[in-house]
Amino acid sequence: MEHSMQSNTIVDVLEKILDKGVVIAGDITVGIADVELLTIKIRLIVASVDKAKEIGMDWWETDPYLSSKAVDSNTKVLEEENRKLHERLETLEKRISANGLKSSEFDY
C-alpha cells in the first residue's frame, strides 16, 4: 500500500486560506418578465485577522457591538462634546447676565 507524501489535510488548506485570504463575490438578481425586482450583492472575505489588518480591514475594532474599545472611544467623544456644550452655555449665560438680563427670561 502506497501513501501520497503530498496529502493536504483540512488544517493545511485552512492555514493556506487564512494566510493568503480568499475573496468570494457574487450577485443574486430576482426578476419577473425582464424586470429586475431585487439584487443582492454578496462579498465574502475569508482571511486571518493579521491578513485582514494588513490589507486595511479593521472595522471590527471601531464597531461598538464588537469592541469595548469602540464604546470607550465613542464615550470619550460624547463626553468631550458635552464638556464643550457646557462651556458654551456658561459663556452665553455670562453674556446674558452682563447685559442685565436674567437667563430665566429666555426659553431654551
Could you provide a short overview of the structure?
With 108 residues, this protein is an alpha+beta fold. Helices cover 44% and strands 21% of the residues. It is elongated, with a radius of gyration of 29 Å.
Structure description:
With 108 residues, the protein is an alpha+beta fold. The chain has two domains: 57 residues, no CATH class; 45 residues, no CATH class. 44% of the residues lie in helices and 21% in strands. Strands 1-2 form a two-stranded antiparallel ribbon. The chain starts with 9 loop residues before the first helix and ends in a 10-residue tail after the last helix. 0% of the residues are buried.
Secondary-structure map:
Elements: H1 10-20, E1 22-32, E2 35-46, H2 49-54, H3 68-98
Antiparallel strand pairs: 1-2
Task: Report the strand count.
Answer: 2
Instruction: Please tell me how large the radius of gyration is.
Output: 29 Å
Percent helix, as a range, is 40-55%
Largest beta sheet: what is the strand line-up?
A: 1-2
Keywords summarizing the entry:
108 residues, Gas-vesicle_GvpA-like, gas vesicle, 44% helix, 21% strand, 2 domains, GvpA-like_CS, alpha+beta, two-stranded antiparallel ribbon
